[in-house]
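Record T9SS type A sorting domain-containing protein, 215 aa.
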Amino acid sequence: MDNGFKFNYTGNGSSRGANITLNFNALAVWSLPDEFRILINPGNASVKKVSMTATNALGEKGTAWTGYEADEMPKNQITEIIMSPKDWCDTEDIGIYPITLNTLRIDLGASAKGEEFEIQIPAFEACYTKQGGITNAVAENQTVKVYPNPVKAGESVSIAVEGQATVSIYSLNGAKVAELNCNGEASIPTDGMNGMYIIKVTSDNSVKIAKLMVR
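=>
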């Protein structure tokens, strides 16, 4: 298929436990989409359930599935399945990056032994209604005062904090490299750091984000 993929299989004559599982080999998505969308055309195959699984960087797991207990997925037409990350994790927390896609599983109904089937997946997409991910968080919340910025590696950076707050620093791959609780201005050393980082300041009333460049 030009923009998707397909499965071909031969019926085994059994209605118990038959399934097709696609392992994405830990496909990581760094820019958080509003939803993942799969389009499936089962052809003449009897499909009872379709599910996909994902995990975020905090170990939280999400599953989306569509089941057909009494009947089957409509044959020879496209059915849409949606997974929305905001249904199972805090999409405002940059610490959840990346979202890792794990598996797509298709549970099959009864099939005649030796019968040939083809299941088409014409689209598997990450959908965005607005620019997502870390870069979007920075653009919308550039309100934290950080100085000096850029900062020379090994020197300390000062972060203006109003009242009690937690200051966290993340690399662009989502790894937390530093965190401290403070009341007022925070000072964080940059030993061993190099490149672009994201600073997140969390208080009772707000979450603010800024960029930090370490040279």
